[in-house]
Amino acid sequence: MLRIVIFGPPGSGKGTYAAILQERLDIPHISTGDLVRDEIRNGTSVGKAIEEYSNSGKLVPDDIITAILEKRIRLGLSKGFILEGYPRSIEQAKQLEKITGIDVVINLDVPDHVIVERLSSRLQCRKCGTIYNERTMKPRVPGKCDKCGGELFKRVDDQPQVILERLKVYKETSAPVVDYYRTRGLIKDFRNDDPDSSPEVVVDRIMKLI
Ligand code: ADP
User: Fold this and answer.
1) Which of 54, 58, 107, 131 for mutating ligand 1's site (highest number of atoms within 8 Å of CB)?
2) Which of 40, 46, 52, 124 is the most buried (most CB within 10 A)?
3) What is the pTM of this model?
């Protein structure tokens, strides 16, 4: 059993790396961002309550996001998890402690200009969630997912103004979570200096940290 948190600013690649790690380690990838988008797409009452936050790049209130995560975690955790997108505030880190312990936090460190560049050209599959990039990780057929043939879409929060808001929220509310875990000896820092390195190669390096 291995309980991993992948932490980093929006656009640091955490979703992409977590998906590859899921395959390599055979441990489930839990993305709160994907859980949020599922609730919104399914038109649930929770989805209606959080849509506005998500679309404008604001954090969903801690209690709501923790309830969404708990619902997913109740489905089973026997192998552990690769948790991505959570915790994003000190309060959430405290709430997570009540639900489960964790073994390691990978802290992705990526400069702002790389983030803005990546997010403004990001695409995602509507069906299976796989992430592409119009410039660096193109699908074989434009607009279609290589894995499942699903339709690729641009997230509403991947527009320049919303990206800047997400970065601001990250710096103010999420970045302090790194210090919280550092004092507990759980942080492994990962700096990706080469924004063009392939996700598979990055994950090789992340695996050495685990
Ligand atoms: P990003 O690419 O910015 O990391 P995510 O896909 O992880 O985006 O999340 C998208 C949106 O979902 C966030 O902007 C936020 O509104 C909501 N969200 C996801 N995880 C959390 C969380 N742990 N706390 C609060 N809001 C969250």
Assistant:
1) 54
2) 124
3) 0.91
**Which residue has tokens 């990780």?**
137
86 lines ligand 1 (CB under 6 A): yes
pLDDT digits (tens, 9 = 90+) for 54-88: 999 999 999 999 999 999 988 878 899 999 999 99
CB atoms inside a 10 Å sphere around CB 45: 8
Q: How far apart are CA 199 and CA 205, in angstroms?
A: 10
Give the pLDDT score at 30. 97
Ligand 1 centroid to residue 50 C-alpha, Å: 11
C-alpha 167/C-alpha 41 separation (Å) is: 24
Residues belonging to the chain: 210
CA dist., res. 118 & res. 110, Å (int): 11
- 35 pLDDT higher than 90: yes
Cβ-Cβ contacts under 8 Å for 124 (sequence gap 6 or more) = 130, 131, 132, 152, 153, 154, 155
- The tens digit of pLDDT for each residue in 107-155 reads 999 988 889 988 999 999 999 999 999 988 999 999 999 999 999 999 9
Backbone angles phi, psi at 114, to 5 degrees: -70, -40
Give me ligand 1 centre to Cα 205, in Å. 25
